[in-house]
């Protein structure tokens, strides 16, 4: 059957034909309920038992009442808190004046099927109430609201059933994010925040302590599935890894529990996040305690973080130091005395109290009989511990929220013929009361503003609880921080670290990692096929640093900076250039000065013997100009040494190019003169007349002028400039100071013109190589040009391939080698005759061989 507007209710079967017998209700046994009559009756569902068997239907016999086991003392306290709140409201003349609140509370057994069954039973009880006669009461109204449930899966089933009828369901403990969907659950509200905020807080909590390698444990219900999934996704976005997810089935076997325990023992993750209720964790924690497992840092969801049953001495070694989120706790005045005044009774409706009494004192069937004289004041359990109640406070707020909504719905503030009492003729059938409940807004005696947002949820506030042993060796739930989900993200989490005691009572934060964080100077390299939290540490490459522990990437140093030896900071790159103080620089300077001094000495010798035949025969004017150009060639090497500057960069290549062209121009003239000198001995030759001193000077000027123009245009149009070259930094860490040539073609044109003149000189000298020895200067020019060509042909590839300041050294070496080649091949033989064999330095000696 289904519930209809005509009054047909679930649990009844009516035949359409009125002539047939009337409907007979199936299942005469109704679920047990704790109830109290009133003008308005509020429903309540609590998981007084946490184990329920799945029903088996044959559809042939009357269904039996589902049996439940495992009495939960804490859930019984939640139920009695609802009773306490209702009675407190009934004593309050300012809230719902003239209206008595009643209640009908049932056991959901924390199971979907049982929850739906008691829901239908709750609605069907109104049929009996309808038979009562009253003109001033609200007996004709159905249950206007239901408080419940604890777990998310049963809550979803009940909320989905009540939604189409606009009957509010106010939960005190169902936190699944799935219940936020107002399309599926339009009449659902709760006084507990959604798991969405708890998950965000848990992720912030574990990352705050540097835990990025954790495990998770959950169950098969919606609360756990949605919570674990949301946590894993958000945790992964923050760089965390979940090593394992273990699932506890609804009725786990011994083998399943042992398999989960084996995984926990072998795991490298020392931090485990658990989304489950205390009843679902008992078997697992009992097995871990039996194995004496310690050293696991448990992160508890709000479902079990204040579960006194798990705080018993049996679990101290396992669960000491547990950290988790809980709802803010308060001390409700009068609640403890009310709870301690509870007494068993054989009267109908007292079955739950009797069950509690038997569980609390261990009496009953097959045990010592309960006398009823036992005193709760001498016991300590999760029922009597009301120092800071949390879930009970959520129940308390839910009752008061419904009462305040009823207050406005029944117009209790209006003044009329009834003297300001509430209007009792209001109907709850059109869903108007649901709207009043959604709009409720009041401040309770604890100065907390109670209201529901657009999703029917309260402000997300949590306490961070730490399980600590006190001086009596009992576990206490100590507040060590808080979390406000409505605050800006950077201000949500507040933790007092020095108040926390960790697993096994340690003061140091536990470490949970697959791989130790990489030290500064290295980076993480993920292992193939493994989570990103499992990695190897690789040293940063040259020119890169990592200055933080656990860096995933190395940072490249800025331009002109280099990594230090430890690869933890960038330092200014060491500037390198061919310095006068370097060993190579000193050697090159010494060779340069040697060449200059030697050239100067030869110049002095030639000048002293300028009237001797051997000097005159070799065209003394051209010889002196050649010696001058060689001095310039030697001296230009000094411009290449030292730190590049604006003027040295412009001068070095121009000085080198012009000096060498002047030198080669002189050699070209000398070669032509030698060839023409011998041609004048041939009758009728006019070469000597056509190539006199004036023509020789013109030729030198004409061959030197193109190089001067080229160098001038180069320096003026695209001049070289000082440049800090970082290209060598990647291998040496040094910055080479050099002269940057914006027009590289200019240098090769300069070399090309020098090569052209050298080739012409070599060609002409080669043609005159067989002239008589005494006057055969062409032979020495040939040798010098061969040396010149050998040097400069090898120079080009060496120059291009030499790194840094070595390229400058190669160019200086080429200049010195070719200059010494010219100096030694052309002038040393003549100095040898002048100084060591003066008898041969006469005109007759110079011409003897010619006339032989």
Automatic annotation (TrEMBL):
Residues 584-850 form the G-protein coupled receptors family 3 profile domain. It is a multi-pass membrane protein. It comes from Oreochromis aureus. InterPro entries: ANF_lig-bd_rcpt, GPCR_3, GPCR_3_9-Cys_dom, GPCR_3_9-Cys_sf, GPCR_3_C, GPCR_3_Ca_sens_rcpt-rel, GPCR_3_CS, GPCR_3_vmron_rcpt_2. The lineage of its organism: Eukaryota, Metazoa, Chordata, Craniata, Vertebrata. SUPFAM superfamilies: Periplasmic binding protein-like I. The chain crosses the membrane at residues 584-609, 621-642, 654-678, 698-717, 747-768, 780-800, 812-836. Its main location: membrane. This is G-protein coupled receptors family 3 profile domain-containing protein. It holds the Pfam family 7tm_3. The keyword Nucleus does not apply. GO terms for molecular function: G protein-coupled receptor activity. Keywords: Cell membrane, G-protein coupled receptor, Glycoprotein, Membrane, Receptor, Signal, Transducer, Transmembrane, Transmembrane helix.
């Amino acid at each position: 059957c289904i519930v209809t507007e005509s009054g047909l209710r679930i649990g009844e079967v009516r035949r359409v034909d009125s002539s047939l017998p009337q409907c007979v209700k199936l299942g005469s046994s109704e679920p047990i309920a704790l109830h109290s009559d009133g003008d308005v009756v509020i429903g309540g569902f609590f998981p007084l038992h946490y184990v329920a068997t799945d029903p088996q239907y044959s559809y042939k016999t009357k269904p039996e009442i589902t049996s439940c086991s495992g009495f939960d003392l804490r859930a019984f306290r939640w139920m009695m808190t609802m009773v306490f709140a209702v009675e407190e409201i009934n004593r309050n003349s300012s809230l719902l004046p003239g209206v008595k609140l009643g209640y009908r509370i049932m056991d959901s057994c924390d199971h979907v099927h049982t929850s739906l069954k008691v829901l239908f039973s709750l609605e069907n009880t109104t049929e009996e109430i309808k038979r009562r006669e009253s003109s001033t009461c609200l007996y004709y109204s159905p249950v206007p609201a239901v408080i419940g449930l604890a777990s998310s899966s049963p809550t979803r089933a009940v909320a989905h059933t009540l939604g189409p009828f606009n009957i509010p369901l106010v939960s005190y403990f169902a936190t699944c994010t799935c219940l936020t969907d107002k399309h599926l659950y339009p009449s659902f509200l709760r006084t507990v925040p959604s798991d969405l905020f708890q998950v965000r807080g848990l992720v912030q909590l574990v990352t705050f302590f540097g835990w990025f390698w954790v495990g998770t444990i959950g169950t098969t219900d919606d609360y756990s599935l949605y919570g674990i999934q949301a946590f894993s996704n958000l945790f992964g976005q923050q760089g965390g890894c979940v090593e394992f997810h273990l699932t506890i089935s609804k009725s786990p076997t011994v083998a399943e529990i042992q398999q989960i325990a084996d995984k926990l023992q072998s795991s490298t993750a020392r931090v485990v996040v658990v989304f489950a209720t205390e009843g679902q964790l008992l078997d697992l924690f009992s097995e871990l305690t039996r194995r004496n497992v310690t050293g696991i840092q448990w992160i508890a969801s709000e479902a079990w973080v204040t579960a006194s049953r798990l705080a018993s001495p049996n679990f101290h070694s396992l669960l000491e130091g547990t950290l988790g989120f809980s709802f803010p706790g308060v001390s409700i005045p009068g609640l403890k005395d009310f709870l301690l005044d509870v007494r068993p009774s054989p009267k109908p409706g007292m079955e739950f109290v009797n069950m509690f009494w038997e569980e609390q004192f261990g009496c009953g069937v097959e045990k010592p009989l309960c006398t009823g004289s036992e005193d709760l004041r001498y016991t300590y359990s999760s029922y009597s511990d009301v120092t800071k109640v949390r879930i009970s406070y959520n129940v308390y707020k839910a009752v008061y929220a419904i009462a305040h909504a009823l207050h406005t719905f029944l117009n209790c503030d209006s003044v009329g013929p009834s003297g300001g009492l509430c209007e009792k003729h209001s109907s709850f059938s059109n869903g108007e009361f649901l709207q009043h409940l959604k709009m409720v807004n009041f401040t309770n005696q604890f100065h907390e503003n109670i209201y529901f947002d657009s999703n029917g949820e309260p402000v997300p506030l949590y306490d961070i609880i730490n399980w600590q042993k006190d001086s009596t060796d009992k576990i206490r739930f100590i507040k060590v921080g808080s979390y406000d989900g409505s605050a800006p993200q950077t201000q949500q989490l507040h933790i007092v670290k020095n108040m926390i005691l960790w697993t096994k009572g340690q003061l140091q934060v536990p470490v949970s990692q697959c791989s130790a964080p990489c030290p500064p100077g290295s980076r993480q390299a993920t292992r193939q096929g493994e989570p990103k939290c499992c990695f190897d540490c690789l040293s940063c490459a040259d020119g890169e640093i990592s200055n933080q522990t656990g860096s995933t990437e190395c940072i490249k140093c800025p331009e002109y900076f280099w990594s230090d030896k430890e690869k933890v900071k960038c330092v200014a790159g060491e500037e390198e250039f061919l310095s006068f103080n370097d060993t190579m620089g000193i050697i090159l300077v010494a060779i340069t000065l040697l060449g200059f001094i030697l050239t100067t000495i030869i110049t002095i010798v030639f000048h002293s013997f300028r009237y001797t035949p051997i000097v005159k025969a070799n065209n003394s004017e051209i010889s002196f100009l050649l010696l001058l150009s060689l001095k310039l060639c030697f001296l230009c090497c000094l411009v290449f040494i030292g730190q590049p500057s604006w003027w040295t960069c412009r001068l070095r290549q121009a000085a080198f190019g012009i000096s060498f062209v002047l030198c080669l121009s002189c050699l070209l003239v000398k070669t032509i003169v030698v060839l023409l000198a011998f041609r004048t001995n041939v009758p009728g030759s006019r070469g000597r007349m056509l190539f006199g001193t004036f023509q020789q000077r013109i030729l030198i000027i004409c061959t030197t002028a193109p190089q001067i123009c080229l160098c001038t245009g180069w320096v003026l149009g695209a001049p070289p400039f000082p440049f800090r070259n970082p290209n060598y930094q990647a291998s040496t860490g040094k910055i080479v100071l050099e002269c940057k040539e914006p027009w590289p073609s200019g240098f090769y044109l300069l070399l090309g013109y020098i090569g052209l003149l050298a080739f012409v000189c070599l060609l002409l000298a080669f043609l005159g190589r067989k002239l008589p020895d005494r006057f055969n200067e062409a032979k020495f020019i040939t040798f010098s040009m061969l040396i010149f060509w050998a040097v400069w042909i090898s120079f080009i590839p060496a120059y291009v391939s030499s790194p840094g300041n070595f390229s400058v050294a190669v160019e200086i070496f080429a200049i010195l080698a070719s200059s010494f080649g010219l100096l030694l091949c052309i002038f040393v033989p003549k100095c040898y005759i002048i100084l060591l064999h003066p008898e041969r330095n006469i005109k007759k000696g110079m011409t003897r061989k010619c006339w032989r």
